[in-house]
UniProtKB/TrEMBL annotation:
It comes from the Bacteria. It comes from Phyllobacterium brassicacearum. This is NAD-dependent epimerase. Transmembrane segments: none annotated. The lineage of its organism: Bacteria, Pseudomonadati, Pseudomonadota, Alphaproteobacteria, Hyphomicrobiales. Residues 3-212 form the NAD-dependent epimerase/dehydratase domain.
Length: 327
């Protein structure tokens, strides 16, 4: 019984392979880039290679993808080839084989323009019931791949789940204004209030999804740190975020002051992970309040797994305007 992890030379892929191997599981890794956790070097868009990689596989974690940072450097066709055709190749091979769980790593970026409320509106409360409005080829192809997973569950009976993960990358923010206004750890901690998760929690959600998929059937879940906010905070979040944060996590102010850090003046959306916690039994550990306590104790914000994996980057070259170019 083998578990296949696609994208095994990448950030999440390596984390999944390491975590599964620590649990004594037999793991195969598929990635276009060779690496210590990749056993099958090749593309998910190569149907013959996918078939060979899937021999004897009973669980698939499909994390391979072209990401948002590739939008400015890769053609739209490449997104279709990797994110849609690659997913189709894996799903067809899985449905024809012995795969019991197929877990697809998607992104909260599929929500696109649905994440941005009008200037005079409260912050957006984002659950799985919000209709995505993708705004670039990345979001379009990830949403299409999600629909393929649902199709294969409905028509082929393949146990599939979609995990819409929020930010967990360790690289600097792509927005130059954000980089200039906030220390890197400051902005990342702020994001744990509404749109970030630690990779340790991301991995635990994937493992639970694979376990629960045959029982629950097709599901879409938002995988993000648990927010301290309620719907009653949405107006304040958009108009005066420090006031809302101070109401829910008052101890943050002293720690921020000690470090010379700043809270975001406005937060425009909040990702809600309640459905994943309720249905999967997922218990994410790394939220804003917990991280404030770690900082007060002089500890690193990052989980041991996040520190071990480090940064992978998205491109072989560097860019003068930031960690990657923005379209």
């Amino acid at each position: 019984m083998t578990i296949l992890v696609t994208g095994s030379s990448g950030h999440l892929g390596e984390a999944l392979v390491r975590s599964l191997q620590e649990r004594g599981r037999k793991v195969a890794g598929l990635d276009i880039i060779e690496g210590p956790f990749t056993t099958h070097a090749g593309s998910v868009a190569d149907r013959a290679h996918v078939r060979k990689s899937m021999e004897g596989v009973t669980t698939v974690f499909h994390a391979a993808t072209l990401h948002k940072p590739h939008v400015a450097t890769h053609a739209r066709q490449e997104f279709i080839d990797t994110n849609i055709t690659g997913t189709l190749n894996l799903l067809e091979t899985a449905a024809a084989g012995e795969v019991q769980s197929f877990i697809y790593t998607s992104t909260t970026s599929v929500f696109g323009d649905a994440l941005v409320p009008p200037d005079d509106a409260p912050a957006a409360w984002i659950t799985e019931d919000v209709t995505p409005v993708p705004k670039n080829i990345y979001g379009v192809t990830k949403a299409a791949a999600e629909d393929l997973c649902q199709l294969f569950h409905r028509n082929q009976g393949l146990a599939t789940m979609v995990l819409r993960t929020s930010r967990f990358f360790p690289e600097e923010d792509d927005n130059a204004n954000v980089r200039n206004q906030f220390a890197d750890q400051n902005i990342k901690l702020n994001e744990f209030l509404y749109r970030r998760a630690d990779i340790e929690d991301i991995v635990s959600a994937h493992l639970l999804a694979a376990e629960k998929a045959p029982e629950l059937g097709f599901r879409r879940y938002i995988i993000s740190a648990t927010t301290p906010f309620t719907r009653d905070d949405l107006r304040d979040l958009h108009e005066d975020a420090p006031r809302a944060v101070g109401r829910r996590v008052p101890e943050y102010a002293a720690e921020f002051a000690r470090r010379g850090w700043t809270m975001l003046p406005s937060i425009d959306r909040v990702y809600i992970n309640e459905r994943a916690r309720t249905e999967l039994g997922w218990e994410p550990k790394y939220d804003f309040s917990y991280l404030i306590e770690r900082l007060k104790a002089g500890e690193d914000m990052r989980s041991p797994l996040a520190r071990l994996i480090g940064s992978r980057g998205y491109h072989d070259e560097s860019f003068s305007e930031g960690p990657y170019p923005v379209e």
